[in-house]
Amino acid sequence: MITTLKRIFKLGWLSFTRDGGIAVVTCFILVITIFLASSLFLLQNSSQFLISSLQEKVDISVYFKEIIPEEDILNVKEELSKIPEVKNVKYVSKEEALKVFVERHKDEPVLMQSLEEVGGNPFLASLNIQAFEASQYQKVTDFLEDPHFKTLIEKVDYYQRKPVIEKIFSLTSAANKAGILLSIVLVVVAILVTFNTIRLAILNQKEEIQIQRLVGASNFFIRGPFLVQGTISGILAALISLAIFTLICWFLGPKIEIFFPDLNIFNFFTKNFWTIFLIQISTGVLLGVISSTLAIRKYLKV
């Protein structure tokens, strides 16, 4: 049995090296497919990180009438905190709002001069509200429409921010759908290319297969080398893809970190190396074996 397996692996390797040009094309398509599968894993985690960062900055503000005492505002804050959809509520006093504005625009003389001309503190006390999901802000706004609260509130800026909020929360969904669609297309292409490679190998070795049948070779011995050929293509493509993926992550990691200080894709890659390696090897071997099996069943009648 061990001798048979050795011969099968040897014949599979010889078949792979014999069809050099076709094998290169097959590996190239498989590399692209495997690379994309790995990129989707990285993209999903990176996009989740970026979206989470953006979500932390997304909120709606409720501004209260100037005559409303702080105690009433804090009561509203307490009521809002009881809503399941609300993630966080922060109270911003008039004084704090003025301080933030001055700090943010201290280098803009026109704005600072306008503030001096207005005199006093023109800002209103407010509550900054964060929800868990974009769709939940509407429910929070409806809650604030209650007559008990409406008499206290000057305005709610939800409708001004609604387009931005919805766009931010739709980024992950759109990116994932596009990635999955592209993956499906490339998987189909990879299977077809590998399938065609094995088909040509079977046709090229037609006489050898007939001789093997005549001398009584088993079906397993005849089919085995073609499965090995597909597996070799998948493993080789996975290793090439891993090398390219490593270099790209190493090169882009520091550059991306300039724009997103807490995101370094190379660090993420090293922490998840074995997961990514498993994804690439599994994808490569599965594509190779599936394509080979389909071609063998169709063109190799033994």
From TrEMBL:
Keywords for the protein's UniProt record, in alphabetical order: Cell cycle, Cell division, Cell membrane, Membrane, Transmembrane, Transmembrane helix
Topology of this chain in the membrane: Multi-pass membrane protein
Listed GO biological process terms: cell division
Keyword Transmembrane included in the entry's annotation: yes
An example Gene Ontology CC term for this record: plasma membrane
Matches recorded under Gene3D superfamilies: 3.30.70.3040
FtsX extracellular domain ranges (all copies): 58-145
Transmembrane domains' residue ranges: 21-43, 180-203, 224-253, 273-296
All residue ranges annotated as the ABC3 transporter permease C-terminal domain in the record: 181-301
UniProt subcellular location: Cell membrane
One Pfam family matching this protein: FtsX_ECD
Domain of life: Bacteria
UniProt similarity note: Belongs to the ABC-4 integral membrane protein family. FtsX subfamily.
Protein's name in the database: Cell division protein FtsX
The organism of origin for this protein: Candidatus Nealsonbacteria bacterium CG10_big_fil_rev_8_21_14_0_10_36_228
